[in-house]
From TrEMBL:
Keywords: Elongation factor, Protein biosynthesis. GO terms for biological process: regulation of DNA-templated transcription elongation. GO terms for molecular function: DNA binding; translation elongation factor activity. This is Transcription elongation factor GreB. It comes from the Bacteria. The gene is greB.
Length: 31
C-alpha cells in the first residue's frame, strides 16, 4: 500500500479498526 509513495504523501490505509490516513514523514524500504 505504501509502494511508490514519497515523503510528504498522505496514505489512506485499510486497517481492522477502519480506514486510517497516514502521513508519510519517513520511508524505509527493506531489501
Amino acid at each position: 500500500a505504501l509502494l511508490k509513495k514519497e515523503e510528504g504523501d498522505e496514505v489512506l490505509v485499510n486497517t481492522p479498526e477502519g480506514e486510517k490516513l497516514w502521513f508519510v514523514n519517513s520511508i524505509v524500504y527493506e531489501q
